[in-house]
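INFO batch 0412 | record 1 of 1 | parsing
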Amino acid sequence: MKITEHIKNAKGKTLFSFELLPPVKGNSIKGIYDAIDPLMEFNPPFIDVTYHREDYIYKEREDGLLEKVSYRKRPGTVAICAAIMNRFEVDAVPHLICGGFSKDETENALIDLHFLGIDNVLVLRGDNLKHETSFVPQPDGNQNALELLQQVDRMRRVPRHLHGPPDDAR
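INFO prediction complete | emitting tokens
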């Protein structure tokens, strides 16, 4: 269900939702379930799942050149949303960010979300990397949340038959 429908159906009553930060690499979905289980008594209509792009450091190699090395990864927001919706039968709202994604990578995430029946997204520019003084978008990425929102809206408006090759080409 769309978040706007949850708000409309609340008829002025207060809604509670929760925001979940995906765990760092190496943790399992069990930790997420254990964190959410006691909160379900509050009947949240949806749960937000944040997104944090990978963090990098630059290490000097033996030849003196710098190498970009990822040091913190998190499980995918799309997968976590699907798991939450399946386990708890509650809507999930994945965050989509500009930072760290090209428009093509964003489109792939939107295709996955649609396939899984996830109807809501929260679009954000996202944070600067720690070493950046201002936001630097990914090459061929969205510059800001408005551009990202426009990309989401364009994909939403594409007729279903144009989402893939014609049936006879499959």
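INFO post-check: DSSP finds five helices and six strands in the chain.
INFO record closed
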